[in-house]
Amino acid sequence: MMFTAMVALWLPPASAAPPRVLHDALVRAGPEAVVHRFESGSSARYFSVVRVGGAKNWPTRETFVFARRASPTHVGGNEHEWVSFWRDCDATLRGTEKQASGCFASSQNLTNVRSPRETNWAHNTALLWDAGAVYALGGRDNPTHHRVRDGAYSRTYETQSRLDAAARASAPSTRRLPPPEDLRGTPALRGAHAGCVEKRPQFAPNCEFDGRFSLARLGSTYHLFARANLVGEKGARGHFGGRFVQSAASTTSPRGPFGAFSVVDVPGFRAPFARALNVYFAAVTSNPADPDNSLVALFPLRDEGLAILGLGVSCDGKRFSRLAVLANTTDAGDFRTADHPADGVLVDDTSQTALFFVHRNVPSIGNVTGPSALTRIPITLSSLRAFTRSQLPAGCPRRP
Ligand SMILES: *[C@@H]1O[C@H](CO)[C@@H](O)[C@H](O)[C@H]1NC(C)=O
Ligand SMILES: *[C@@H]1O[C@H](CO)[C@@H](O)[C@H](O)[C@H]1NC(C)=O
Ligand SMILES: *[C@@H]1O[C@H](CO)[C@@H](O)[C@H](O)[C@H]1NC(C)=O
C-alpha cells in the first residue's frame, strides 16, 4: 500500500505540459570560447559565417564573416548602415597562413552608405553560398518613410572577382555613384507578399521586414526566413513585442520567386502570441549532421521567464522541433535578447564537431554594456545527429 502511494507521488500529473525547451540535449565538445573581441564602439552585428569555394568559377575555399555596420553618430544606426566582411578565415575563425594576424585583422565593405537604397538593403541582409555563388538578399519595405524603402532586393556574386569589385566600388574614396543596377530593378519581395504577417498598425497589412533575413537550402528548395510582427498592441515605449519568424520557399533560386509566407511553428511557443514572446530572427542553415533531410535553426528567444539561443530542426522550413538550448542569454529590455546567434555553421572535420558562433553583447541592443565578442560553441556531430533523429517533427522522412 505504502509503496503504491509513493509511486503515485512521483508520477507527474497527466495534464503537465511538456517542457518548452530541452536544456541538455546537445553535447558540447568543449567550452564556449571567445573567437574575437571587437574594439569598443564597434557597431558590428548580424554576423554571417559563410564557407565558399570548390566550384569551377570560384575554386578557392575560404570562410567569410559578414556583418552589418552602422555609423555610431546615428542613434540606433538605422539610417547609415552597410555590410562589411572579413576573409581568409579557417573553420575556427582563426586566420589562415595567408593572414597570420587572424581573420579579423581588416575588413572590407561590401556596400556603402552612398544611397538610402543601399543603406536600406544592408539593414537585414541574409547571405548564402550555393552552387558557385554568394547570394545576398536584403531591404525593408516602408514606402511612407522619408527615405527609399521599397522592398527586398537580391544580389548575386558569382565569382570572387565580383565580390572584390563590389568591395572596391564601396571604398570611401569612390565618388558618389547612383545606386547599383540591381537595386533599380524589380524587388525580390514586397511588403504585400502573400501570407506576410505584420500587425503593427503603422505598417499593417504590409510587412516592413525590420528583422534580419536568413536564407537556407534544403534539397532543391530555398527557404527564406523573415520577421513577422504578431502583436499590434502598443506598449509604453511604442509598438514592438511579439516579434516572430515567417518563412517562404522558392524551388527556383535563392533570388526567388518565393511562395506565400507562413508563420513558423515552434512547439511551446504558439498562438495566442503575447508581446512578451519574441523570436528576434531565425538563423537557418543546412543541418551539418543531416544535410540531405533537415535544416537547423538558431532562434534568439525571449519569453516570460526565459531568454535563450534555442536550436531547432525542421524538414520543411515551417514546422520546427522543440528547442534545445544552445546557450543561455539575458533580457536586455524591450523584449530583446542581449546575445544573438551568428547565421551559418562550420564543421571541424578533425574533431567531428559542428561549430556554432554566438555574438555576445550585441551593441545598441537594450541595456547591453558588456564587451562585444564573437564566441564559438562546438557541438559534437553525433549529438546533433541524435537530437535531429529524435526531435524532427512527425511526418519528416526518418532514417534508421
Ligand atoms: C566602410 O564604409 C564606412 C561608411 O561609409 C567607412 O566609414 C569606412 O571607412 C569604410 N571602410 C573601408 C575599409 O572601406
Ligand atoms: C541554461 O540555463 C539553464 C537553467 O539555469 C541550465 O539548466 C542550463 O544548463 C543552461 N544551458 C546552457 C547551455 O548553458
Ligand atoms: C536590462 O533590462 C532587463 C529588462 O528590463 C532587466 O531585467 C535587466 O536587469 C537590465 N539589466 C541591466 C544590467 O540593467
UniProtKB/TrEMBL annotation:
Origin superkingdom: Eukaryota
Signal peptide from the UniProt entry: 1-16
Alphabetic keyword roster: Signal
Chain positions covered by the region annotation Disordered: 161-185
Amino acid composition bias (Low complexity), ranges on this chain: 162-176
Name listed for the protein in its UniProt record: Uncharacterized protein
The organism of origin for this protein: Pelagomonas calceolata
